[in-house]
Amino acid sequence: MATGAGACAVTETLRLVFAEPAAVPLAAMIVLVAAPNIVFRVMGVFLSRGLDEGSELLAFVRAMASALLAGVVGKLLAAPPGALAQLSFPTRIGVFALAIAAFFAFRRSLFVSLAVGEAALVAAFFLG
Amino acid sequence: MCGRPSRFGGRAIYSPGGGAMGGSAGVFWKGARDAAMGPAWLVGVSLASVGALAHDVGAPAWLAALSTPLVWAGPGQLIFFASLGTGAAGLAILTATTLAAVRFLPMVVALLPRVRGPKTGLLTQIVASHFIAVTVWVETMRRGPSLPVEARMTYMFGFALSCIAIATATTAAGYWLAGSLPGPIAAGLLFISPIYFVTSLARGAREAMDWAALWLGLALAPIMERFVGGGLDLLVTGVVAGTLAFLVRKWRQGRGLAP
Predict the structure, then answer these.
(1) Which residue of chain B comes nearest to A57, CA vs CA?
(2) Which of B21, B126, B174, B184 has the largest count of CB atoms under 10 Å?
(3) pLDDT band at B133 (very low <50, low <70, confident <90, very high)
(4) Segment-wise mean pLDDT, segments of 10 residues, chain A, 128 residues
(5) Average pLDDT of B108-131?
(6) How many CB atoms lie within 10 A of CB A126?
(7) Which residues of chain B are within 8 Å of residue A24 when distances are taken between CB atoms?
C-alpha cells in the first residue's frame, strides 16, 4: 500500500511537472531550457581534446536537431500565430517557397532571400 | 595590460599596450565593434523575429528578453516559444530544446582549441563556451587564426558580449513591435525566422543527410501537427525525420557513395 501510494505521488508529481502545460512556472521553464545549452557547451570544454567530430552518434543527433529546427519552420508555416494567420496556407507556402528559391538562385544569399520573401509577403497582403 | 610572452616566440606579434591592437582592452573593443558593425545585427534581426513570436504566443515580455542572454541559441528559443504557443507539455519542450542544444558540443570542441592560449584558465573557457552560438562561432573561426594567440579569447569576449547586448535589445524590440505594428509589417517581422533558420540550415548542410533532414523536417511538420496530439508533434517530427535522414547516410555509406 505504502509503496503504491509513494509511486502514485511520484507519478502525480511527474505528471504535474512534465505533462501539464501550465503547471511549471515560466521562470523555472526558461532556466530548464537554458540548462541543456549550458551542459552541452561545458561538456564541449572538457571534451575539446579528442572528440571525434565525425562520429555516427553526433551525426545522428545533428540529423535530429536539423529536422527539429526545419520542423519548427514547417509548423510555423502550417499553423502560424498572430499576424501571419491572416494569410491562407497556400499563400504562406508560396511566399516561403519564393524566398527559398531566391536563396538558391542568388548564390545562397540570406539578404536576397529575406528581401524577396518580405516583398512577396507584403504583396500578398495587398493582393489577397 | 596583461600581455604575456608567447610560448610560440616567433609567432607573437602582440605586445602589451602597443601595436595596432592597443592592449587587451583594445582587443576587446575591437571585437565589440566588429560585431556591432554587422554580424550582431543579423542575429539581432532573427531574434527580433523570435521576440515577435513570443508576443504572438502570449509569453510575457521579460521571458522573451531573458531568453536571449540565458539560452543564447536562436533555434532553441524559436523551438521554446513555438512549443509554448501550442501548449506542449514541459517534458516535450525540454526534450526538443535539448536535442537542439546538442550541436553546441561539437561546436565548442571545434572552436575552443582555436581561441584559447596555452594559459587560458578553465573558468574563462567555461564562460566563453556559453557565448558560442552560430554567429560567434562562424566569425571567430574565420577571424581567430589571423589574431595573435593571446588576443583571441579577449576578442571573442568583446564580439560575443556585443552580439548578446544588441540581440537582447532587439528581442525586446521585436516583442514590442509585434503588438504595435500594422498587420502586414508584423507578419513580415514574424516571417524572418522561417527564412533565416532554413537558409542557415541550408548553408550549414555538408552532406545528403543534412539536406534530407531539412526537407523531411519541413514536410513532415504540418502532417504531424495534424495527426500527433499532446504537443508532441514537433518532437515526433524531429525524431522521425532525423532518423530517416540518418538512414539516408547509412544507405549511402553502404553503397560506398560520398556522404
Answers:
(1) B246
(2) B174
(3) confident
(4) 55 56 70 88 82 75 88 90 88 96 94 95 88
(5) 86
(6) 7
(7) 90
Q: Using CB atoms within 10 A of its CB, is residue B156 exposed (0-12), middle (13-18) or buried (19+)? A: buried
Nearest-angstrom CA–CA distance, B247 and B244: 5
Contact pairs from chain A to chain B, CB under 8 Å: 314
On whether any CB of chain B is under 8 Å from the CB of A95, the answer is: yes
Give the closest residue to A64 by CA, choosing from B238, B214, B212: B238
What type of residue is B179?
G
The ipTM is 0.78
* Weakest mean pLDDT among A74-83, B15-24, B125-134, B177-186: B15-24
Interface of B with A in 80-99 (CB under 8 A): 80, 82, 84-91, 93-94, 96-99
Residue (of B36, B250, B190) closest to A96 by Cα position? B190
pTM score, two decimals?
0.79
CB contact under 8 A, A41 and B99: no
Per residue, what are the HEC states of chain A?
CHHHHHHHHHHHHHHHHHCCCCCCCHHHHHHHHHHHHHHHHHHHHHHCCCCCCCCHHHHHHHHHHHHHHHHHHHHHHHCCCHHHHHCCHHHHHHHHHHHHHHHHHCCCCHHHHHHHHHHHHHHHHHHC
| CA closest to A83 among chain B residues | B187
B64 CB near a chain A CB, below 8 Å? no
